[in-house]
Specification:
binds phosphoenolpyruvate, binds manganese (II) ion
């Protein structure tokens, strides 16, 4: 059961509610968000059935939910949520292209990539300042200097920015510069990080862990939501498979399955799924056809010089092809452009 408190609910009303739940034999988990306070109640069926909290002061709504992820579940949410990122919607009525360099390498490189992204129809700019690299010897990103470059370029081209945070200690500084915080595949189960991004109150792009089941992924989203932040977008980016000619196996089933299990919007990252440029457009088409709410792709003006993930970065003809697909295909299933 989830209890949503009224906006002006007092501490005394909250304490009274928690007391009522505990007296009845249940556990109450209070999530104080920027916009709302939510109380998750975990208790046996009999206790839940007997619990009558709606008449208590400060209570706005009581929602019964049977799935283990209470706040992100599709139950009691007939409509997919819309998450706004710096005014750009990600949700069921639109299709959002998020594009930009894998890593922010320099001001010039980021400007070039942002110009390409914008010309291709992107309404959000991506770029990594903190890179979670498999090798400690690989380029780790420019850190705060990279965040500043990305924020500057985003302002220049008029695109809100999405960037990854890899450490709970950096959440505040990343949130100061970015419109949306990305939690990458390697950190999907970093629960301290999930709680920290939940508490900061900015939209979150939550990538699926390399070997995460749907339930594990949604439980990770629940960690963010439990801190009162429901502005979460799920991102399918391929899972670990046995085929070595592609980087990961894009799980297209995840798109309709996530929409079935959760009210959160779902986007697909075909770049990190494939790891190779020639598959990005076909996989983006598949994502659109499967009902994704957007795609995120890597773009670089000079992929051969990229310090990170050059083989999958789009430019030139392939980027033009992606732009055409994103412009025309979503309309075939009733979606409009985002922004
Ligand atoms: C990224 O988007 O830059 C990235 C590192 O992706 P993933 O976490 O999916 O590997
Ligand atoms: Mn990358």
């Amino acid at each position: 059961m989830v209890i949503v408190m009224q906006q002006g609910a007092t501490d005394a009303e909250l304490a009274q509610l928690v007391e009522a739940v505990r007296t009845a034999g249940g556990d109450a988990f209070v999530s104080r968000g920027v916009n709302r306070t939510i109380v998750g109640v975990v208790a046996g069926e009999e206790v839940l059935a007997a619990l009558d909290v709606l008449p208590l002061g400060g209570v706005a709504e009581v929602v019964r939910i049977t799935s283990p992820y209470k706040l992100v579940s599709r139950e009691n949410h007939a409509r997919t949520s819309v998450v706004h990122v710096g005014g750009v919607p990600i949700g069921p009525a639109t299709f959002t292209l998020i594009a930009g360099p894998c890593a922010v390498e320099s001001l010039e490189q980021t400007r070039e990539a942002a110009a390409l992204a914008k010309a291709a129809g992107a309404t959000l700019l991506r770029g990594g300042a903190y890179k979670p690299r498999t090798s400690p010897y690989a380029f780790q990103g420019l850190g705060v200097a990279g965040l500043k470059i990305l924020a500057q370029v985003g302002a220049e081209v008029g695109l809100p920015i999405v960037t990854e945070v890899v450490d709970a200690a950096d959440v505040a500084v990343v949130a100061d510069h970015a419109d949306m915080l990305q939690v990458g595949t390697r950190n999907m189960s970093n629960f301290a990080l999930l709680q920290a991004v939940g508490a900061i109150g900015k939209p979150v792009l939550l990538k699926r862990g390399l070997t995460a089941t749907y339930e594990e992924w949604l439980m990770a989203a629940e960690y963010v939501a439990q801190r009162g932040n429901l502005d979460i977008v799920l991102c399918e980016r391929g899972v670990r498979g046995f085929e070595s000619s592609i980087r990961n196996m894009l799980d297209i089933s995840a798109v309709p399955m996530m929409h079935e299990l959760s009210h959160l919007p779902v986007v697909v990252d075909p770049s990190h799924a494939a790891g190779r440029r020639d598959l990005v457009v076909p996989l983006a088409r598949a994502a659109i056809a499967a009902g994704a709410d957007g795609v995120m792709v890597d773009v670089h003006a000079h992929p051969e010089q990229a310090r990170c993930d050059g083989p999958q970065a789009l430019s030139g003809d392939v980027l033009d092809e992606l732009a055409a697909v994103v412009r025309h295909w979503p309309a075939l299933i009733g979606r409009g452009p985002a922004g």
